[in-house]
Structure formats: C-alpha cells, structure tokens
Write a structure and sequence with these properties.
- With 378 residues, the chain is α/β, with parallel strands linked by helices.
- The chain folds into 2 domains: 2-184 and 353-370, Rossmann fold (3-Layer(aba) Sandwich), CATH 3.40.50.2000; 199-349, Rossmann fold, CATH 3.40.50.2000.
- It has 14 helices and 14 strands.
- Strand 9, helix 7 (211-220) and strand 10 form a beta-alpha-beta unit.
- Helix 3 (77-92) runs parallel beside helix 4 (105-116), helix 7 (211-220) packs across helix 12 (320-332) and helix 10 (284-291) packs across helix 13 (334-349).
- It is globular, with a radius of gyration of 21 Å.
C-alpha cells in the first residue's frame, strides 16, 4: 500500500503526535508499505531525507521553537504542504492519505482528496478538539467551531487514541462516529537496569501539565531525592522560581531530542515518574515512562487512566496533597516501586506498535472498501 502521511510535526520537532507519526510510519515500512511524510521544515532540518525507509519531505514554514507551535505558525505549513502533496500524489499515486490533527492539517487532507480522489482519514490528538486545551486554544476553538464541525462531518473516518477524547468530540458533534486506536510504544527504546533514587517529569511546560503541584508535593514531604525536569514552554520561568526554595535538588534540562543520550539516561535511571496533567488525550510520555520501568504517579484526567490502568497511582488534578501522599508511599517502599515498575513494563507491552499498526491497517481497509467519494467543501 502507498500511504501519504500529513502532519505539521515530525521528529525532531513536535510533541506527542510527532513520535506517534514516526513510529507508525516506521512500522508500516517494515511491513512492506510505502510511506511518504509531508511535514513542516524547522531551521536546518533537511528538505528531504529517508529515515528508516520513510520518505520525509519538509516544506517551508515559520516555526520559532521545536516543542511548541503557535496557531499562526501552523498555518504557514499549509501552502507549501499543499503544493508538495499534490506533486507527490501525481508521481506516486497513493492509495490513502493519513492526516494527523483535525486542525490545521484536516483542511489540507480534505482539499487534496477532492482534487485527487484519494480517500483519507484523520487521527485527532487532543489540541485539535475544542475544549481539550483551553489555556492555549480556547479563543481559536470558538472561532473555528463551525469549520471544525464541518470538517468532522466530512471526514470519511475519524480516529481517536482515547475514549475520553471521543467523549469530548461527541460533546460538540454528537452524531460523529469515531474509531478508537491507542498510541503505541517501542519497547526496545529503553533498557532499564538498576534504578536510582531520582524522580523524573517530562512534558511541554504549560500550566495545565500540573508540574507546579508536583513541586509543591515534593516540598511538602521535604524530599532530598534529585528531581529532573525535561521540557520547555511558557511556564518554565515560573517553575524555576518555585524550585529555588524547594527542599529537593531540582535540575531543569530544557527540551531534549529523544535521540539525545541524556534523554535515555534520565528515563532509564529514574525510579519515579510524575505526570499530574489536568487534560490529556493518550499521553505518549506515560507509555515511555512505563516502558522505562518507572513507578508512575499520574492524574485521573482525560486518557491518563486509560494508559496506566492498574499499573500506576492516580491522583485528582491540582491536588498537591494527594501527590505528596502517593509520592511518600513510593519513596518509603522499594517493594512498591519495584512492583509498579514491573506492572508498568507489562502494561506497556499491550500497546506495542505491531498491535497499533495492524489496527491502523484495518482502518485503512475500511476507508478503501467504503470508497467514500470526496466531499466538496462549500
């Protein structure tokens, strides 16, 4: 099968949807499929490269940071991507278009489908669904709601990684049919050995990620374990201010590419992972922490419970006292840490990329069998 992947984010830039797109493409190629990816260019990233058999085309765009992309920056991806995509479809004759994000990539996939007759599907990732990320996109979601509803209704197949996100989609578009396909994890990425007495947090640094409550919890119990924070974002300065008077030694590593050896060292060494986010889809960062054999504390928000199941400790969002209580249990019990570490690894195995890739191939076949005619965008 010849597959065209559209996502404005692709490694080495982007958040959770970036590695998802890469790993899915990688596993499709391993199964003998042809995959072309059209994404946005960032700084000195090459315009074209072949990565593990994936053809990656990067089109001109304006993006300031590798980990966060503003709405106006997303929009700059579309003109160049449209031209490159149309040229590729004439040359390759793709069977299907797999689009990531309803906004901004959905209109691109819909227009290309109309012009070429190639059917498409969309995987949503959270921030492209109204109400999911109000601290960044509330105004944009309100303005784009009519267009969003139209895009959703015209999409031949919509896929969500979590049941919680499906509920949010149906809140705004009740009749929408959505298929559930979880994100996957490469179990060979990390090779955990002997764990150190250290704690890790990793994400884009935004207020809704809840890192401030984790720092409050760590200070409450006067913990002296090293705390490592990976990530960058607009809330970083405030977190650093909070860390100045914290009882624990806290190191901020900034944004680290997953190819950076420091990224792997931190994941493989840490014993505890804290992710107290207020709103999540199906966070890949939790899958990574579980596959690295960390004992996980996460929130009851969104798709976090769907990821960890009974292999992690859950707390209510914005509750530093609950985080402190669970953290103290882990710090004081090596047996509990080891039990949760083993459970996390076993749980991560149920989200292998071989399983997830087959689920997507089934989705592709559904779209191709239905042969949904492209719908005009009025």
């Amino acid at each position: 099968m010849k597959i065209l992947m559209l996502n404005y984010e692709f490694p080495p830039v982007g958040g959770g949807a970036s590695p998802v797109t890469f790993q899915l493409s990688r596993h499709l190629v391993q199964l003998g499929h042809h995959v072309d990816v059209v994404t946005m260019r960032y700084r000195d990233c090459p315009k074209f490269e072949s990565v593990e058999g994936i053809n990656v085309y990067r089109t001109p765009a304006w993006r300031k940071k590798p980990d966060i992309c503003r709405i106006h920056e997303m929009a700059t991806y579309l003109p160049g991507a449209l031209g490159k995509t149309l040229r590729l479809t004439r040359k390759i004759e793709h069977d299907i278009i797999h689009c990531h994000f309803i906004i901004p990539t959905g209109p691109l996939a819909g227009l290309v489908s109309i012009l070429t007759g190639i059917p498409y599907l969309i995987t949503c990732h959270g921030s492209d669904v109204p109400g999911y990320n109000p601290d960044r996109f509330s105004r944009a979601h309100k303005l784009l709601m009519p267009a969003w509803r139209k895009l959703v209704s015209q999409t031949p197949l919509l896929v969500s990684p979590s049941a919680s996100l499906i509920e949010l989609i149906r809140k705004h578009a009740p009749s929408t049919e959505v298929s559930l396909v979880p994100n996957g994890i490469n179990l060979q990425t990390f090779h955990p050995d002997l764990k150190e007495k250290s704690i890790l947090l990793c994400s884009r640094i935004l207020p809704r990620k809840g890192f401030q409550y984790a720092l409050e919890a760590i200070d409450k119990i006067k913990l002296d374990w090293p705390v490592h924070i990976i990530g960058d974002g607009p809330y970083l300065a405030e977190l650093k201010r909070m860390a100045e008077n914290n009882s624990a030694p806290i190191t901020f590593w900034g944004w680290l590419d997953q190819k950076d050896p420091r990224f792997h060292q931190l994941y493989e060494a840490a014993s505890i992972f804290i992710f107290p986010s207020e709103a999540e889809n199906f966070p890949t960062v939790l899958l990574e922490a579980m596959s690295a054999g960390m004992a996980v504390i996460t929130s009851t928000a969104g798709g976090c419970p769907e990821v960890v199941g009974d292999a992690g400790l859950l707390v209510e969002p914005r509750n530093s006292g609950a985080i402190a209580e669970q953290l103290e249990k882990l710090v004081n019990s090596e047996d509990l840490r080891q039990d949760l570490s083993q459970a996390a690894r076993q749980r991560a195995e149920t989200f292998s990329w071989s399983f997830v890739t087959q689920k997507y191939l089934d989705c592709y076949q559904r779209v191709l069998q239905n042969k949904v005619a492209p719908k005009n965008i009025d």
